[in-house]
Specification:
The chain contains ten helices and 15 strands. The protein is an alpha/beta fold. It has an eight-stranded mixed beta sheet with strand order 2-3-1-4-8-7-5-6. It has a seven-stranded mixed beta sheet with strand order 11-10-9-12-13-15-14, covered by helices on one side. Helix 2 (about 45-55) packs across helix 7 and helix 5 (about 180-185) crosses helix 6 (about 205-215). The chain starts with a strand and ends with a helix. This is THUMP domain-containing protein.
């Protein structure tokens, strides 16, 4: 494998600029934003670093071959012709993920199957034996992307999605995805320079991601494994050097990060997850009803949260969102509050005008990340000063 090569960081809708900025900060070259992806170039060491450090990417792919195909037979022949024995042995295992946007090819599962057939047939014809499929921890995970008649074959260097950071053992019914949490925090401008509160913290994802951003801790430090560790050119010494160099950039944090939840089980789960992430010294979690809480001091407060959508509790949405607005207005002066919701009707009941609305997807749900500036003193006084 050459020194520098092209890579693709896959991400969520709207997060392309965040990934591009992260890549710039890490030192990537030739950064280009696409749709739900950002391409860049770097070497093997940078590939290790990108997997360790990117907060808002889901996968890091290493493109291998591109070709045009007009039928399933074309796909089979093109895949069969590639020298797979350079990358894996007959006793190794294989997994294939496919995404398809095409009128000719409509079933991604079928494309995966056809690709797998071509690779194992090549091995069988050459060595009289074939590799097996292992969907969880394969030696080689491939990504097939078909757009119209163009097929891109890439090696998946990440393996399991990068939102699986390795610190979560316990989740609630509707946990927020770690990549979405990191994206919300970065979109909100969170940089660790003030106190932080998640007043409805659930299993603690936003708190953990906020602490890692504040301290510049690589988000995927706790992961058990990356796919590239099973590649033939895996360089454990280089990976260790990269890990040491990114850990040297960890910084001190001089404020507080707090989480509240009314559910005792959520509080226990959040505390467990914070311990797993080795962040207990930075994060305090309390059983507390946000609606009965108030700001603890005069310092500026940065608040980001994901209000329940009614899964855990039967919620009267209009009344619930009105209480959010009332609590912010009455008890949280000097606060920048951000929250995400897919209930676009309920926003009207907050009783405050958001100063920003950012479109995001929480899973398949179209959502808005909303920003509310709560000023010191009443609005009236504030207006007179303006």
């Amino acid at each position: 494998m050459g020194n520098n090569f092209k890579m693709i960081a896959k991400t969520m809708f709207g997060f392309e600029p965040l990934v591009a900025k992260e890549l710039r900060d890490l030192g990537a070259m030739d950064i280009k934003e696409g749709t739900r992806n950002v391409s860049f170039t770097g070497d093997n060491g940078f590939m290790y670093k990108a997997n360790l450090c990117l907060r808002t990417a889901i996968k890091v792919l290493k493109p291998y071959k591109s070709f045009k195909i007009y039928s399933e037979e074309d796909l089979y022949k093109s895949i069969y012709a590639l020298p797979w024995e350079e990358f894996m042995d007959v006793d190794d295992t294989l997994a294939i993920d496919a995404t398809v946007h095409s009128e000719t090819f409509t079933h991604s599962k079928y494309i995966s199957l056809k690709t797998k057939d071509a690779i194992v047939d090549r091995f069988r014809d050459k060595f009289g034996k074939r590799p097996d499929v292992d969907l969880d921890f394969p030696t080689l995970r491939l990504n097939i992307h078909i757009e119209g008649n163009f097929c891109d074959v890439s090696f998946d260097s990440s393996g399991q999605s990068l939102h699986k950071r390795g610190y979560k053992t316990a989740t609630n019914i509707a946990p927020i995805n770690e990549v979405l949490a990191a994206g919300m925090l970065l979109q909100s401008g969170w940089n660790g320079q003030s106190d932080f509160l998640d007043p409805m913290c659930g299993s603690g994802t936003l708190l953990i991601e906020a602490a890692m951003i504040a301290c510049n801790i690589p988000p995927n430090l706790n992961r058990k494994e990356f796919a590239f560790e099973r590649w033939k050119d895996w360089d454990a010494d280089l990976f260790e050097k990269i890990e040491e160099s990114v850990l040297k950039k960890v910084r001190e944090f001089h404020f507080t990060i707090k989480g509240y939840d009314t559910s005792p089980s959520a509080v226990h789960k959040a505390i467990d997850n914070v311990e797993n992430a080795n962040l207990s010294e930075f994060i305090k979690i309390e059983r507390q009803d946000f609606f009965e809480s108030e700001k603890e001091n005069d310092r500026h407060l940065h608040m980001v949260f994901n209000p329940p959508y009614g899964e855990r509790l039967e919620i009267d949405m209009p009344a619930f969102y009105k209480r959010i607005g009332d609590t912010l207005k009455q008890n949280y002066p000097g606060t920048q509050a951000w929250f995400i919701t897919s209930n676009l009707e309920a926003i009207k009941h907050v009783g405050l005008r958001p100063s920003r609305k950012i479109k995001m997807y929480n899973g398949a749900l179209e959502s808005k990340l909303l920003k509310y500036e709560i000023y010191e003193g009443t609005k009236k006084v504030h207006k007179q000063q303006d």
